[in-house]
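S1.2 Input.
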Amino acid sequence: MNEIPAFRQMDHPVLVEATQIAPNQISITYDQPADFASATNVSNYWIRSNMGPIGIATVGMKDPLMSSNAIRPEIGMITPVGNSKTRFVMSFRVNAMTGVMYTVLPCFVNLEGRTGFMGENWGPLSRNMFIGM
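S1.3 Output.
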């Protein structure tokens, strides 16, 4: 008899949803509690757009993710929402461009109480795309 495997929780938080909540703000939700230091390090995030690296976007559709094109503190910041450890708000100095498709790409965000995760924090079920309003 074949057993259905139990759902295996990832050893890192996975982005569940990224939603634009204001012209210059994105709400980010993870599936598990995230480590505060890595989740609020804005350099662990990239914003991809179909218009290239312009406005809040740091990379175009085919650009590789590198430390040199991550979001920088002079462009934006990320803060926790309450004490949930799963919800954060990313704020930018400029507004997202209306009608542009954006994709939020977090990497290196650890689970609460852990360090050393060196991969991507999104998956096939992540709702990490939105159209700028």
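S1.4 Remarks. Residues 15-131 form a domain with the Immunoglobulin-like fold (CATH 2.60.40.1220).
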